[in-house]
Design brief:
The complex is a heterodimer of chains A (about 260) and B (about 325). Chain A is α/β, with parallel strands linked by helices and about 260 residues long. Chain A has 6 helices and 13 strands. In chain A, helix 2 (about 70-80) crosses helix 5 and helix 3 (about 95-110) crosses helix 4 (about 130-140). Chain A is globular, with a radius of gyration of 22 Å. Chain B has a 7-stranded parallel sheet with strand order 7-11-6-1-4-5-12, sandwiched between helices. In chain B, strands 15-14-16-17-18 form a 5-stranded parallel sheet. The chains are: A alpha/beta (about 260), B alpha/beta (about 325).
Amino acid sequence: MKIITLLKRVPDTEARILINKEGTGIQEDGIKFVINTYDEYAIEEGLLLREKVGGESKVTVVCMGPEEATELIRTALAMGADDAVHICDPALGKPGPFTSAAVLAKALQEEGFDIIFCGKQAIDDDMAQVQAILAEMLDIPQVNVVTAFEISDDQGKAVLRRSIEGGNEKVETSLPVIVSCEKGLNEPRYASLPGIMKAKKKEIRKKTLSDLGFDGAPGTGRADILKWLPLPKSGECRMIEAEELGDGVKELVRLLREEAKVL
Amino acid sequence: MANDILVYGEIRGGELKKVVKELIGAARLIAQNTSGSIDAVLIGEGASVAADSLKEYGLRKIYVNEEELLKSYSTEGYAAFLANLIGEASPGYVLFGATAQGRDLAPRVGAKVDGVIFSDCVDVRYEDGKLVAKRPVYSGKLFIEITPRGERTTFMTIRPNNLPPAEPSGSGAEIVARPASVTREMIRALVAEIIPLAGGRPDVTEADTIVSGGRAMKDGANFKILEDLADLLGGAVGASRAAVDAGFTEHALQVGQTGKIVNPKLYIACGISGAIQHLAGMRASKVIVAINKDPNAPIFERAHYGIVGDLFEIVPVMTEEIKKIL
């Protein structure tokens, strides 16, 4: 089975994100970049699937990103992925979802796949669009925000659980399929020391846009960002103090009812 | 016509989602500027009844399909149906709720008709003859204002509870039964069953009130005091990442950057210190109450009302006090 996991390099969840001086994006200096949180579940699920089906199965990491993404790809290889494709081209800049999907679609068609795992969204742009556009371009089904995955014995079908408001949908799909992963699907493993050593020898196939047959980044910009806005400043917190706990709580409830009008 | 707006009327369990009326409100705002008409489309079990409930909302047409093949949700079936309709009616704008279904469906339809898609919008306006949408990036740590380029159909998913719902206005809409140009073979992934979460409380993304617990809850069983308060207020129970990672409760309840992004009217944070990643998920709440032992906890910087103290003492008293006034 040919298992693909998609990886994106994004700022750490704990990073403080500030707008740059020019007002055209974020200040990247000093930010720690990591594997997109949800992509870790995708990698783990790919590895679990390989362990389950065995045989000639292979997990290939596909990453579109800058030179600096290499170390994160190595981390995924150290977790146990077999090899990787790194699409790296300065002409990509900060690609929109249709550009990303077009480039990934081409790379995946060349690579071949039975199943594609990715994160439910990247925690930088937060669009959650690429998986659906990619699915449309590859003409395969999509199952998003998945918290449980099981493959059929003949490997032709999968049963999944996807998180929705107040519950889960049980989805049945044929393969090939793209599955976007949610926290709770599995517990991503840490890279072991032998894994880290092995990863150094694993192949990362670097590809430029022209390697993939593109003359520059495919697709034109579909939108313009007019403005980057910081969060509105929050007001003072009104601290409620009272000698007796009961009086303080009573005052809080009164304020919530009479001032904030939320009770 | 390119100045028209199509609203996707999501139905869940036979009922129209609350967000649909908020979408109609946004559609009216666009229509005022483009002089276009507003249509809606409802698919699945209960579509006809739900369409009747929208008749007096100033819509031109309400397209309805209740065929067996589209009775329950499938991305591919619904996307094919919608792409076909959009191809014929060619609206300039298509609005979805940023719900589990809307976020799944909108980009697939958008890809089919080669449109442009804005996810999770929290505000929409018209400026200098152009649509401007505001949406969070970096999980709500920043916002961007974005405008479509060129003549493509613009798809938006709009977050529930952000825009005021439309009130009835205008004359009755024409209800049009629209046949599906969809075959069974086109649907490769199908929802076989919906499994509700235990507890019967609203989802954190849909609740007006959320009572959330953090690491200081110490144990899953202690969530009972939060549940009692949440149930009294008809609200949801939430949790911080620390509480979920410690195994106190399930991930479906997690609020934060790697959980759900919420915007209730009232958010009560109990024993939550206020890590950046948690604040990213709940800072849009209208009123935030923080209960924490540590007076220096960062949660107090984002809260509107704070009490320093032991949540195990404060929460039960709060429940009793609220019982007295409700």
